[in-house]
Description:
Blueprint: H1 2-9, H2 12-33, E1 55-56, E2 61-64, H3 67-79, E3 84-87, H4 89-110, H5 114-134, E4 136-137, E5 152-157, E6 160-165, E7 170-171, H6 172-189, H7 194-197, E8 210-212, H8 214-226, E9 231-235, E10 240-242, H9 250-266, H10 270-298, H11 306-329, H12 340-349, H13 352-367, H14 373-390, H15 397-423, H16 434-443, H17 447-458, H18 463-469, H19 475-483, H20 485-505, H21 509-518, H22 546-566, H23 571-579, H24 587-597, H25 616-631, H26 639-655, H27 666-683
Parallel strand pairs: 3-5, 4-7
Antiparallel strand pairs: 1-10, 2-9, 3-8, 5-6
Helix pairs in contact: 2-10, 2-11, 4-5, 5-6, 10-13, 11-13, 12-13, 12-14, 13-14, 14-15, 15-16, 18-21, 19-20, 20-21, 20-25, 20-27, 21-23, 21-25, 22-23, 22-24, 25-26, 26-27
Amino acid sequence: MNLEKKKWFESASWHTIYLTSLFIITAIILYFALPQEGRFPYEFQKGRPWMHTALIAPYTFAIAKSDATINEERDSLLKSLTPYYLYLDSVDKQQIADLSSKIDEITLKENTEILYSRIVKNKVLTIFEKIYNSGILEQAPGNYPSLNGKSELLIVKKNLAEKVPTGQLYSLKTAYSEANTKLEQLRKSDPDYNKIIEKLHAEDYLAVNLAYDPDKTDGEEQKILDNLTTTYGVIQEGERIVSQGDVISPQTYLIIESLKSTYEKSRGDFSKYYLIIVGKMIFISMLLLTLFLFIYNIRRKLLRSKRDVTFTLLMMVLMIFFCRIIVLSNNISVYIVPFTALALIIRTFLDARLAIFVNTITALIVGFMVPNGYEFVLLSISAGSIAVISQNNLQRRDQLILTSLIIFFVYAFTYIGISLIQEASFASIDWTIIKWFLINAALTLITYLVVFLIEKSFGFVSDVTLIELSYSNQKILRKLAEEAPGTFQHSLQVANLAEGAILKIGGNPLLVRAGALYHDIGKLTDPQFFTENQALGFNPHDSLTFEESAKIIMEHVSRGVELAQKHKIPAQIIDFIKTHHGTTKTSYFFIESHNKNHDKTDESLFTYPGPLPETRETAVVMLADSIEAASRSLDKKDSESLKNLIDTIFQGKIEAKQLDHAPLTFKDITLLKEIFLEKLLNIYHVRIHYPQKES
């Protein structure tokens, strides 16, 4: 059952269902990403001419204040709010009573005259009563949010509110200091007072007697906010708002923005909402259909990979949602979004033409939700296209820095060009927008980090990773050079042959080089069983049967795959290991067995398991591998013998149907033959014989 399920999930039917579902899900997600209300049919910018016919108010509407204005007025009104604090008279009554009792207790112990003690008592109590009447907070007034920046507060005593300057209030610390100072002055004024005062501790009789009253304060705040108006007035139906060619002043801009808001909200009425739904569905469906038809007709190979299609649509959706979030923030320009990163990422992992097309489709969708959509689309398509063209391959960090600078200049100069067409004046250009282009270009540098994360998440391989894999100092390649030097040299020669060939016919030279360097790492298991690593006069195959020898030779493919997986080599490189022999035979041992046993030879025991190469890169490495290995056995390495060898190997691969799944044309095969011959002639070029100097 599990096997049947696996086969079904790998079938063409499931592939079609998956891709269809993916496009439908993408359409649904994009539907919700677009604004849910109708779209105002005019493009406009503050300080620029009105490019449309005269705008007449279609109905009466209010001129709404901007959020910034409303917030400014709100803050100004709230600054005038005086907070309410409750006077806790029970606190000071209790503390004064305790202080009075303490003085009486001291008087009794000291046998002080009653009249004398009453005088001292009254003076001491007066000091504490004055402090309590002023009001005591736990901390200084400036430490309380409700009093921060306030010069007054309202103290409620017995349902009556009295305005008191905040500078008059005491904190516990200042109240202690004030009480101790006054008591010290009293003690010094009459030494006889000392008998009572020295036994008093001011901090024992001082406590907080003011408490913030949030209910009364919030009530006053609400009254203030209720008086805050959110509009300037109204525009009557039929009133002219702006004429064609008029420069949009700040006041006119505010009126048009109010009309736009009212217009888009009115389109959300149920009676019209279903038409908006239909329109959005048609708009999104047509753009996604356009993308699908482009992929189907121009990049059909992409449709064979669920991962590649999923990745492309996911990147597009994420960029659209990111732009939507920025648009909803209102305070940040949409040009801060590193929009070109989408094109650069798709270019890095998939294809340049696909990157430009996806960038264009995405810009059209985002243009529907941002202010000045036409300008946004023009700038985004221009910057994205040039970024893809300039970033041929992401191989070094400095390339991305250069691309970021190019993106900035494309944005800036395209914007200036559009502005000059509209304004015909440098003075009228909004130069502040340049800063957003600069931030945009700087944020594009995160592409390098995103590329790394995508590699780990989706299993792609970037050019940077391929360069790193091709370093001969990589652990597995270093081990190959030390333990199987003949195989390592063979792999280097194959890499040189294949890289030169793929550059001519088109393909990824970095992928080819890395694949060629790793294609024979399976020989590390038993390097002595392979001719290029054998010492003169010793061949371990002499003691084995032909079948045993063939098995060891063929196992270098499966062992190479295991070794690559162990060292976390990417799947794209492992494909070269799997396919470099295709389903060919171990010719030497098969022929020897056939000559000895004739029809009793089991061909399956001498046949590699495959699979066949399915890309240009893997096919080229297969051919380069066979040609390089065979050329070593030639006694005479001249142009004719090498040409015959190349023709024979190509013919053999074609007849054995090893290239049936590879996208190679007859023109490609002709070019490959020429390139391989040229490369081999350079490799085996005979040096000039230098004459001996006669004595």
